[in-house]
Design brief:
The protein is of the alpha/beta class. The chain is built from six helices and 16 strands. Strands 6-5-4-3-2-1-16 form a seven-stranded mixed beta sheet.
């Protein structure tokens, strides 16, 4: 059993009752986040898919305050460590068993750099396959559709898949629906939409496209929690 709270964009809190894992904590500046980084005082890990500001978000601040490690591709982890975060560096294809469960990094087709006054390279983007609370969850990160999603589904019995649907920067609803067909999860949760004007996609449209591929589409409202078991 895992309680999943959606904080908008690609940010989720996963809670199995004993452990809490936060993914892509873009809270400050996120128009759909109902809480700020100060809301998180107990975490086992912070998983970050890539270095763009709308995914790295408040990870460093939260790690420094809570002591929770930032789990991310090596270059991004080192970026966070230089800013004072506790980190656990990994890389694509690698897995590690933490106290809360096992994490494996998957490919994602996107970019990864921290862009401020300049641009700092933060390695390859990734997705995560996470074992937690007796479930296997797949957070695809920011990505386009790729056929190896079929391998992810074949090698892991995915209970819950979190897939971007916003188009423009990632898959749109049609490609995300094809991803459901390839992965074949029990449940699928749309993400990465309605944050900015360019991400205007409707989760209802995605649900109608994906509904014929065998997964239950669960649309979680911003700030709401859904229990998967």
């Amino acid at each position: 059993m895992v309680d999943v709270t959606y904080h908008g964009h690609a940010c989720f809190l996963l809670d199995d009752g004993a452990h809490r894992v936060l993914i892509d904590p873009f809270l400050s500046g996120n128009p759909n986040a109902r809480v700020g980084p100060e809301a998180f005082d107990r975490l086992d890990a912070i998983l970050v898919t890539h270095g763009h500001a709308d995914h790295l978000g408040d990870a460093v601040e939260i790690s420094k305050r809570t002591g929770a490690p930032v789990v991310a591709p090596f270059e991004l982890a080192m970026f966070c460590q230089r800013r004072g975060a506790v980190v656990h560096p990994m890389h694509i294809g690698g897995g590690h068993r933490f106290e809360f469960g096992r994490v494996k990094l998957t490919i994602a087709h996107h970019g990864s750099a921290f862009v401020d006054k300049g641009t700092e390279y933060t390695g390859n983007p990734c997705g995560f396959v996470l074992e937690l609370g007796g479930l296997t969850l797949y957070h695809a990160g920011d990505t386009g559709l790729f056929y190896d999603m079929k391998l992810i589904g074949e090698m892991n019995r995915i209970d819950v898949a979190f897939l971007p649907i916003g188009d423009n920067f990632t898959m749109g609803p049609e490609d995300a629906a094809k991803a459901v067909e390839l992965i074949r999860p029990r449940y699928v949760v749309p993400m990465h939409y309605a944050t900015f004007d360019v991400l205007v996609q409707s989760p209802g449209e995605f649900a109608s496209l994906a509904g014929g591929h065998g997964a239950d589409v669960v649309v979680i409202g911003f700030g709401d929690t859904h229990r998967f078991g």
